[in-house]
Amino acid sequence: MSLRVWLFSSCRLIAALTLTSGCSSAPLWKCDHMEGVTSSFQSARLRYVNSTPLLFEMLCLNGEVETFLSLPRFRWSSNSVPVHVRLETEEFQEITTPLEGGMRLRLSPTTTKRLISALQEGQEVVILVDGFEERLQPEQFGTYFEQLVGQPGGLINFLKGPFL
Fold first, then answer.
1. 3-state DSSP call for residue 62?
2. DSSP readout, 73-121?
3. 94 forms bridges with which residues in the sheet?
4. Which residues of 88-111 are buried (b: 16+ CB within 10 A; e: fewer)?
5. What is the pLDDT of residues 28-43, one digit of tens each?
6. Labelling 161: which of 14, 24, 35, 113 has CA 20 to 30 A away?
7. pTM of this prediction?
8. Residues 141 and 121: beta-carbon distance below 8 Å
9. Mean pLDDT for the chain?
10. Which of the listed ranges 17-26, 54-63, 86-95 does the model predict with the highest average pLDDT?
């Protein structure tokens, strides 16, 4: 085999491997279930898998979903932290207080519902807080959110509330 044929074959192999590895990526969302002794102590966590210092997660306990932002290696700079959220259709801000330890923020139920709706509709969500940014991609969010709430109709029940 000549050097030219060998180089051509090697280049084709490298190009094919590059294309296939680029097309198969790890999931952006991860759902973990934590079993409890009784059903009231069972919970689930949905995390956005990323490489930024700002972490986004949703917890579901007793059918209620709460949203948290955390900085595992840092503390928030003040006791009143503005969280800016940018959706494709709107922008809004929420002021929240760090939880004990200063590394975690809990978003309001209203913001949680808006984020869930936007991600279910296929919108990218950009969260800016204290100089950190997280971009949540909506791909496969619906599937993982259904795992979080434990039933396919859970989102509808969550958005309607307990009395509807």
1. coil
2. T---SSSSEEEEEE-SS-EEEEEE-BPTTSSEEEE-HHHHHHHHHHHHT
3. 83
4. eeeeeebebebeeebbbbbbeeeb
5. 999 998 776 666 667 8
6. 35
7. 0.73
8. no
9. 80
10. 86-95
